[in-house]
Amino acid sequence: MKLLNYLTVIYKYVAIAVLMFLMFFITYGVISRLWFTPLTGDIELVQLGMVVLIMFGFLYTESIDGHISIGLIVDRFPEKYQTFLNIISHLLKFVITLVVAIVFLNLVMDHFTGTRKLTDLMRIPYYPFEFMIFLGFLGWSLMSLTKAIVTIQSVFTKENREEDMKSV
């Protein structure tokens, strides 16, 4: 759990650094179009930067429960059912994001060892950014698994406390 929290902080600061870079880079790109010669490949660099920003934001967003959830129906269920549905939700997120991470890891291996995919203008290889996609989804899946485990543990500790109260 401590390692995952440490990774969350690292991912968050990488995303913040990329966001700051993009902010200044886009500003410079706009100004250079007006007064100087335009930057070559600015759109490609911004697109690749957005990949890093989004992927490294997944783990932090999951850690603060920032992803969209619809509680319109679930909130009307009793607390036990809500907890059960939360566990199922976390486990499903874990499985889906882990599958996506594995797919991108295979893609990275294919593009690293075999056919290299490159951006059109600047000829930047895709595989480092595909690896960042892998890292983003892997972090998200680990956080979902951790939340499922913590929720399951809280159910059992709550039941033990209720049994202790009944025996008194």
Short description:
This protein is 79% helix and 0% strand.
List keywords for this structure.
mainly alpha
Round the Cα radius of gyration to an integer and report it: 21 Å
Distance between the termini: 34 Å
**What percent of residues are in strands?**
under 5%
Whole-number total of structural domains: 1
Outline, from the CA principal axes?
Answer: elongated
Counting DSSP H or I runs of 4 or more residues, the number of helices is 4
Characterize the structure shown:
The protein is mainly alpha-helical. Helices cover 79% and strands 0% of the residues. It is built from 4 helices and no strands. The protein starts with a helix and ends with a helix. It has one domain. Helix 1 packs antiparallel against helix 2 and helix 1 runs antiparallel to helix 4.
Topology diagram in text:
Layout: H1 2-35, H2 42-63, H3 79-113, H4 127-167
